[in-house]
Design goal:
Elements (H helix, E strand, L loop, with lengths): L1 H5 L3 H11 L9 H9 L5 H4 L1 H17 L9 H12 L3 H11 L9 H10 L4
Helix pairs in contact: 2-5, 5-8, 6-7
């Protein structure tokens, strides 16, 4: 099994599943794997314990607000997260969602959320 071959714990493997799965399909494609290899990330997100803890917490947050469990945060789910966790009103939340929805699909991916939380000093 790949997890044991790489020496990853189940928690570490889950972090990478979410990080590599850019399109939130629940799986990762060859292109997503190639992109990761080219990024030269080399498991930095788990070798740095602080970064690993932050990403794990963001994944837990992401999953808790994904109320329909489709792997994305739609506009309503994103607004709820921003209101409850960052104290934003609806108008500000919509503005932030528009800014961080980089692929313009109307949803916030985990990677977009990580960028948002980092910019708002919550990571």
């Amino acid at each position: 099994m790949l997890i044991t071959d790489l020496g990853l714990t189940l928690a570490q493997a889950e972090v990478y599943l979410y990080l590599l799965d850019k399109d939130c399909s629940g799986d990762f494609s060859l292109n997503e794997i190639v992109d990761w290899f080219r990024s030269e990330e080399n498991f930095k997100n788990i070798s740095d314990q602080q970064r690993f803890r932050e990403i794990s917490q963001a994944i837990d947050l992401y999953k808790s607000f994904d109320s329909n469990k489709d792997g994305h945060l739609d506009e309503q789910e994103s607004q709820t997260l921003l209101r409850k966790c960052l104290g934003m009103n609806d108008e500000k939340a919509k503005e932030v969602i528009k800014k961080y929805d980089l692929d313009r699909n109307g949803k916030i991916s985990l990677n977009e959320l990580l960028t948002l939380l980092k910019d708002y000093k919550h990571l």
